[in-house]
Write a structure and sequence with these properties.
alpha+beta
């Protein structure tokens, strides 16, 4: 970013009608999700959209995402091998989902 901050960008692509409809739904959710603040949920900073794609801007995750943590980028590369740590990660995920479903205003239901 111009100020030197590092962010993560998720690029959603597609030009067909179904993708455009889904993209409009994503943009409608951005306003709500941009206000979600929980220690176990990555913060959505904003989005950019045009006819070609939509980009979601998130706070940087220097240690990778949840999938990388549990499964590794390559087979056998899991960063979390012991089941007790996996259990703790599962609890953290559950706490984040519980916040979205019950404590967030408005409540966020996801598919």
């Amino acid at each position: 970013m111009p100020g030197g901050e590092i962010i993560a960008v998720k690029k959603l692509r597609g030009k067909n009608q179904e993708t455009i409809r889904r993209r409009k739904g994503v943009l409608a959710e951005v306003e709500v999700l941009g206000n979600v603040r929980h220690r176990n949920i990555v913060r959505l900073l904003g989005c950019c959209s045009n006819k070609e794609c939509t980009m979601l801007l998130y706070e940087d995750m220097p240690n990778g995402n949840l999938d990388d943590l549990l499964h590794g980028k390559n087979e056998g590369d899991s960063l979390v091998r012991d089941w007790f740590t996996r259990y703790k990660v599962t609890l953290w995920v559950a706490q984040g989902i519980c916040y979205l479903h019950h404590d967030c205003d408005p409540v966020v239901d996801h598919r």
